[in-house]
Amino acid sequence: MEGKLGNPAPLGLMGFAMTTILLNIHNMGFYPLSSVVLSMGICYGGIAQVIAGLLSFKKGNTFAATAFTSYGFFWLSLVGIWMLPATGVENAQATPPDFLGWYLALWGLFTAFLWVGTFKNSKVQQFVFLSLTILFFLLATAIWTKNGDLHKIAGVVGVICGSSAFYLAMGELLEEVKGRRILPY
Known about the structure:
Layout: H1 9-27, H2 35-59, H3 62-83, H4 97-116, H5 123-145, H6 148-178
Helix pairs in contact: 1-2, 1-3, 1-6, 2-3, 4-5, 5-6
């Protein structure tokens, strides 16, 4: 098996899943934004997904490469948006809420196009991208309307989205380990 490259999707999916779940537990109002989410955003949501994306390029999977690398850099940029204002750098001022809404809406548009790319793939993968599209647009709308209840609803959608990615990651991982499909996906 020399030269065989493993499937990077479970790594990328878990980086996305666990970071998304934690952030959306915060979005539901249970915990303040803290170093838990920031650290996961940098390390697992960010760096691990970028690594999974680069490995997907090597495997010739353009869709996974684009998705994992993009969402890895989404997490890194989001942490930057939150943390850079504390550096005191003049141009690293806090982002106006409406502009953050546009940032999230653009990610929603990007994700909607990726969702179209999943139509011939598993139903769980389709659900991950559809629920993520909905999540981005709910968060943008909650910011634009200053609607706290909508923000909490987005948090619920985010936990569901992250949980579905967690399930897909474990389905793909267990299938490779056991040599047969263990979880339907």
